[in-house]
Design a protein that fits this description.
Elements (H helix, E strand, L loop, with lengths): L1 H23 L6 H13 L8 H4 L6 H22 L5 H111 L3 H8 L1
Helix pairs in contact: 1-2, 1-5, 2-4, 4-5
Length: 211
């Protein structure tokens, strides 16, 4: 868009000097002012950011066509009339047609590109703002990740501190289970011994034991 705008500006300057070259042969004193008036009348007759020549729309109101084509045409025709008796006809015709075509497209391309540059700048600012916001969010996430990693490291340290105590508690618990198993085994053996001994006693001996 910028390159297209620069080329359109250069074409416009070239067109101005060509107009001034013709006007200077007729109006030697005020040729710059007259050339400037003709130039701006033909170049920037459009008052819309985008010309209908580039829209591709079927709607082409007559007044819009006169505005965008009629004024540049008559500005170029004025150049033709001023140079008609000063230069050969073929040169006058060539200059007039060339000026008309530059009027028709160069100014409209410049205005259209100015509009596009405004839109591009808005998109650029939006992208730049998003990039800054993205960088800020990424930095905040990095800090949060670092904080969480520190917390995980602290949990691991606490875990390693607890492990010896857990091992000791587990060892004590195993000892208690072993003692319980031993007591149960002793009880069962005594119970079996008592049962077998009971079978060998007489009723009188059992009564004496109970009493």
């Amino acid at each position: 868009t910028s390159i297209s705008l620069i080329l359109a500006v250069f074409m416009s300057f070239g067109n101005f000097y060509l107009i001034d070259f013709v006007v200077k042969n007729v109006f030697s004193l005020n040729h710059v002012e007259i050339s400037t008036g003709i130039f701006f009348a033909g170049m920037f007759s459009i008052f819309s950011p985008v010309s209908f020549l580039f829209k591709g729309s079927a709607e082409k109101p007559v007044l819009r066509m006169i505005e965008e084509i009629g004024i540049p045409f008559f500005a170029a025709f004025l150049i033709f009339a001023l140079a008609y008796d000063k230069m050969p006809f073929i040169q006058v015709a060539g200059i007039s047609i060339f000026v008309f075509m530059i009027f028709l497209f160069s100014g409209k391309i410049a205005l259209q590109n100015l509009t596009l540059i405004q839109e591009d700048l808005a998109i650029f600012r939006s992208n730049l703002s998003n990039a800054r916001l993205k960088g800020k969010v990424i930095n905040e996430l990095k800090k949060e990740v670092e904080m969480l990693e520190n917390e995980i490291d602290n949990f691991r340290k606490d875990k390693w501190k607890i492990i010896p105590e857990l091992s000791r508690q587990e060892s004590e618990l195993n000892k208690i289970h072993a003692q319980c198993e031993a007591q149960i085994n002793i009880f069962e053996s005594e119970f079996k011994l008592a049962r077998s001994y009971k079978g060998s006693l007489t009723g009188k001996e059992i009564k004496q034991i109970i009493e």
